[in-house]
TrEMBL record:
Species in which this protein is naturally found: uncultured Sphingomonas sp
Identification of the protein by name: PilZ domain-containing protein
Coiled-coil boundaries: none
InterPro entries tied to this protein: PilZ_domain (IPR009875)
Pfam families reported in the protein's UniProt record: PilZ
Biased composition (Basic and acidic residues): 151-161
Region Disordered: start-end pairs: 151-170
Ranges where the PilZ domain occurs: 54-126
GO terms of molecular function: cyclic-di-GMP binding
Length: 301
């Protein structure tokens, strides 16, 4: 570039075109957009510091059954095997509460935490089998025979007095088995946990978005598959109505998991809640060995 010609002019040389620098992309945050510049986090959150509600549910009015009475309560949070509610009733720690979510969606719970008018609930661990007592006895016996070897699980020592061996006691006994499966919907597959199941439907716990009216395929592994329609969704719980009757006896073909003896407290419940589960001592849930012995004795009558 001829600087003198540019300053004084009059040069015979061809006038050069001015040199134009390419436009640079602006750095930093864009106007009125707070997320346009990333801010790296140097340290992860070490604990749950939220004292308030973390996720407000769209459907927050539910009912609970306690001591033979129904109460209207507000559902503040529901996830991770438990719920936080508030309402005008006063349960005691370890009390049984049946949480009525929607339609026939009922989850058996235990009161784990009390703070003011807020109540923390833990869901029953085992998969509830909605069938006749005889069908349930036969199913559980077959499950133990096909999936659990003798002596695989030791029965814990019990200090309580032995219970009478009758039909009512047999039906009231809690088994420790949890069935799971895979839910296939909209080209995606995700694991689900069966909270309860019958020949006409199931209450499932899931981790992916699932809209009401969806028609997923529930895959129970060796127990088979069944299509259903999602009739309601509250938090991570959903009701599934089967398109065709499901043979409950098929559950014996799928190996269930054993319910844990400790409780993984959801993050939204108050810190300091004991991790000891009420489902063993207070409500007499049998071990696999005890359940086998009791069922074998009943079938030999």
């Amino acid at each position: 570039m001829n600087i003198r010609a540019k300053m004084f002019g009059g040069s015979d040389e061809a006038v050069e075109q001015p040199f134009v620098m390419p436009a640079k992309r602006p750095k930093g945050a864009k106007a009125d957009v707070l997320h346009s510049i990333p801010v790296p986090r140097e340290e992860h959150r070490r604990c749950n510091t939220r004292d308030g509600e973390r996720h407000r549910l769209s459907v927050d009015q539910v009912r609970v059954a306690h001591a033979g009475r129904l109460h209207d309560v507000e559902l503040i949070n529901l996830s991770g095997g438990g719920a936080m509610i508030t309402g005008n009733f006063e349960p005691m720690l370890w009390d049984r509460v049946d949480l009525h979510l929607a339609g026939d969606g009922v989850i058996e719970c235990a009161v784990r935490w009390l703070k003011g008018d807020r109540i923390g609930l833990e869901f029953a661990h085992e998969t509830q089998l909605d069938c006749s007592p005889d069908e349930q006895t036969k199913l559980l016996r077959t499950v133990l025979h096909q999936n659990f070897k003798d002596g695989e699980f030791e029965a814990p020592a019990r200090d309580s007095e032995p219970q009478p061996d009758d039909d009512d006691q047999r039906v009231a006994t809690r088994h420790p088995l949890i069935w799971s499966g895979m839910l296939h919907y909209d080209f995606q597959s995700a694991p689900v946990r069966l909270r309860n199941i019958s020949s006409t439907g199931a209450l499932i716990e899931f981790e992916v978005p699932l809209p009401v009216g969806a028609e997923p395929l529930l895959d129970l592994g060796a127990a088979g598959t069944v299509f259903g329609t999602v009739t309601w969704v509250v938090g991570d719980q959903a009701g599934l109505k089967f398109h065709s009757p499901f043979d409950m006896a098929l559950l014996a073909q799928a190996r269930p998991q054993i319910a844990p003896t400790t409780w993984q407290r959801p993050a939204y419940l108050a810190p300091g809640t004991s991790a000891d589960s009420p489902w063993d001592a207070q409500w007499q849930r049998l071990s696999v060995s005890e359940l086998r012995d009791q069922l074998e004795g009943f079938m030999k009558r």
